[in-house]
Prior knowledge:
Layout: H1 8-14, E1 37-38, H2 51-56, E2 62-63, H3 64-94, H4 104-116
Antiparallel strand pairs: 1-2
Amino acid sequence: MQLIKSNLSNILKTFDCKVQKGVFPYNFMNSDNLFYIGNKPEKKYYENISLKNYNEIPNNNWNVKDETLRYLKSDIEGLLEILLKFSKNIFENYSLNISNYPTLPSFKFKYIYIIIL
């Protein structure tokens, strides 16, 4: 269950995170090009990318392995930044440590209990 309802890109923006969601040509990937190194994939392989952002991607020596690892690393770093900011916010406002609640229902139950009292 999602603790924060939205997609990663929007959550990163909402929390004003330093790390932002990267772009990746999902539609380019298939079993035949897992080790591709060459020109960047055409814009049509990317979803929701502006021409400006597409043009900022270096054109040559685009490497599937390196780009995949870079993309995954930014997702993980962004998630960590969100969790730290969210946890701090909850603690400062409700004196709750989110790591003490293993499930979303247990957290919500404690949260509701605090509000009622």
